[in-house]
Amino acid sequence: MKKIILAILFIVSVIFLNALVREVSLDGSHQFTSIQSAIDYAADGDTVLVYPGRYFENIAVIEKELKILSHYVISNTWDDVLNTVIDANSLSNCLRVESNAIVTFNGFMLENGIGHFYSISYGYGGGVSVYDDSTLNLSNCVIQNNEATVAGGVGVTDWCTLNLSGTIIRNNKSVYRGGGLGSYGGIINFSEENPCSIYNNYGDIQDIYMSGVLSSTIYLDTLSLNITEPDGYFVSYYSSSGHPSPAVSVQNAYYNQIDADLYVSSDGADSNDGLTPETALRTIAYANRLVQPDSIDTNTVHILPGTYSTELNNQFFPIAIQSNTNMIGTGNGPEEVVIGDEWGMNQIIPRYSENIEIANMLIHRANEDTDFSLGAGRCNNLYIHDIILQENNNEEPGVAISSCSDVLIENVTVQDIDNNRDGLRCIKINECNNVTLNNIIVDNIYNMNNDGFNIYFYMSKSQVMANNISITNCFENATGRMFQFGNSSTNGNPEGSIHLNNLLFYNNQALSNESTLLGFSSRFNDNYINNVSIVHNFIPSIITAFVGNFTVRNGIFYNPNVGCEIEIWEPANGDPTPLWSNVDLDYNLIRNGLAGIPGADNPNNNVLWGDHNINANPMFRGDVEGDIPLGDPRWVQLTENSPCVNAGTPDTLGMNLPALDITGNPRVWGDIIDMGAHEYNPTVENSDETAPTPPATIQVSHFPNPVTPNGNNGKVAFIEFTLPKKPIEKPTLEIYNIKGQKVRDLKITQSFSQLVRSAGLSSEDKQTGEHYSKIWDCKDNNRKTVASGIYFYKVSCEGEEAIGRMMVVK
Predict the structure, then answer these.
(1) Around Cβ 792, how many Cβ atoms within 10 Å?
(2) 634 with 628: CB under 8 angstroms?
(3) Cα(333)–Cα(675) distance, rounded to whole angstroms?
(4) Which of 224, 678, 741, 807 fits 199 for a cystine, CB–CB 3.0-4.6 Å?
(5) pLDDT tens-digit profile of 685-708?
(6) In what order do the strands lie in the sheet with 800-808?
(7) Strand-pair category, 354-364 with 196-199
(8) Peptide bond into 52 cis (omega under 30)
(9) What DSSP letter does each residue of 632-657 carry, written as one string?
């Protein structure tokens, strides 16, 4: 006993040597009753010694060098840690260290801290926030049950240093960048002799996020999962300057993952095993961390029909997704699985992941505190399909994809957004390689914000193949575009280009005359725009601007209430890197013709004006028949005597055009393809003629042919098929190699016909059978690109089947 007392006295003497000790206790038996008052009174080099108790405080150390210690440093008893509590009472951070402060902090429990972006300082680190060139030596603490916008437990930024030893960081939550520990820049040292434990935290990155941080090895006693390197889900590391990724050394795992499909139900329980619908889990985020990734036989989190929200069943958002896993709603349509109901942070955010699929759900009422509703960053081989995003009022209320590659987005609707945000993006594709968009609808977006630059459909520095894009009934009060493809910066992606087919841009309005409604700009490569209808919109100035290299065929540019239809952009005087244009226009209806195109006469721009362009009234159904109100997309269907009928490109070989128009009706009806997104079809709705007869059997087609997954264009196959009628059972689509071996099952959730009916683009009796449009990315069921050769695709439904043949050339 005498030796123990002497050892404790020696430790105390070392700690307090040549420094004043400011003692704190709640009962008034010492100099101070609050920790903050002791900190404010202390001078550099002093020690604040805190006795056990629950201190309801939000403490801050600014520009000081202090030791803040609990009685644990004297007793060496863990109970003194658990009983010396800084409770932030959900008012602000538990501890802030800022402005060149140097702090040693030892022996506390910190909980109920909150850090949201009321100011940039307080939004980083709910439990502990370290910034502005400060140093924190954090030892023997428990940091739990805190939350923040960024970094729920501990947040470090502005080139600070964090030395971690013997600390437990658990049960914290953040929206972005690390539920447990998050750092931008600086240095983090993890003690090997007294390792920390960081586990059971939630965020877009679960436990640890480090960006540009200097750190060697992450030594841990316990992590949520036993890993040896950052996996992008539990631990993520990113460095733009090439710093090597740290190794991860873990002694214990908090979770045992399950190598099987898991089920989630709105009335399930997280105490269940999740292996069947009857024993389903309740929390989607929990199921996604519990499922074991498998790159060969991918496991799926199946979400059963129901509504999933924080208020109804204690869901946690955002929902992050591991590599080599899927998250799919099991309903008959996306509206049966509702993510969010009351306003909240209803987000799905895969980060640093690969080989994932997200499908068949409605993301509803994400609030203004979140950046995006469904956002992916630095992902590879990502498939998003059959998603509705509705009534969200955040900055990016739809799908936002950044710095990703091999992305498929199909059957997505963004609708009914009443917003007041600057920089609004409903679809955002930024700095991505090999993106395919198929069947995307943006409808009824209303934004009254007067500031910022809004682009509802935004694609930048990316390689994009896009089919069947509909943007209708949108309003913009501020400066901005509703549709933009841009790749004009001198340091942009040299592979960036767009191939766009079937764009309907109708009944949209902007009040500002400082920009065009649509902008196409590309400094690199050739770009192709086919069968677009940019019609009956309003803006005080110009509808569409082109700059760069574009070939435009079969378009209708007809907006009688605007100044002009098309502008060929002219660089400003003195621009050091001027971008001039080569625009090839033929087989288009363009109101006011070549004379009405500003910039076309500039000698530095090369405008090829074909002999088959026309300047006429397109004679839309709404103009001629008057049976459809303005705003209904069927208003701009072509009528029998329209000059656009059979006026398109006579030979479409090599243009990689869909077999269906924007409403799911067949191309080509008649002798030659029509101009615009709609193909004229005599139907019950817009003619006295008999409607086309649905096919007697399943009809299949695809484009392009051959498919070139490693080429500049046509990297994926678009498989389109038509059933004689709407089926009771879902059809199946399978891909086989020439040996008869099945290489891929493609899930069919809803038809293209159902999608356009739901969006009001077409009605039930207009369809000539039930039409489907599906992407195949030339990958097998293991997400590996198939070899060159001949492949067969088989559609089966209710006892019938049809087979098509395609060539893949790598």
Answers:
(1) 16
(2) yes
(3) 32
(4) 224
(5) 444 344 556 677 899 999 888 998
(6) 742-746, 732-737, 789-797, 800-808
(7) unpaired
(8) no
(9) SGGGG-B-TT-TTTT-S-S--TTS--
SS3 content of the chain, % helix, strand, coil (to 5): 10, 45, 50
DSSP-based three-state secondary structure for 392: coil
Whether 676 and 519 have beta carbons less than 8 Å apart is answered as: no
Q: Which amino acid is at 217?
A: T
Tokens of residue 174, six digits: 């953040």
**Beta-carbon contacts of residue 220 (< 8 Å; ≥ 6 apart):** 190, 195, 196, 197, 198, 248, 249, 250, 251
pLDDT in tens, 315-361: 999 999 999 999 999 999 999 999 998 888 889 999 999 999 999 99
| Amino acid (1-letter code) at residue 789 | G
Instruction: Look at the block and give the residue holding tokens 């601007």.
Output: 545
The whole-angstrom separation of Cα 428 and Cα 606 is 30
- In one-letter notation, the amino acid at residue 772 is Y
**Alpha-carbon distance 170 to 173, whole Å?**
9
| Residue pair 665/681 in contact by the 8 Å Cβ criterion | yes
Contact between 488 and 461 under an 8 Å Cβ cutoff? The reply is: no
Buried/exposed 267-285: b ≥16 CB within 10 Å, e otherwise = ebeeebebeeeeebbbbbb
Catalogue the E-assigned strands of 396-477. Answer: 396-402, 405-419, 427-430, 433-447, 454-460, 463-472, 475-476
Residue 91's alpha-carbon distances to 25, 56, 117, 127, in angstroms, are 22, 10, 13, 11
**How buried is residue 728: exposed, middle or buried, by Cβ count under 10 Å (0-12/13-18/19+)?**
exposed
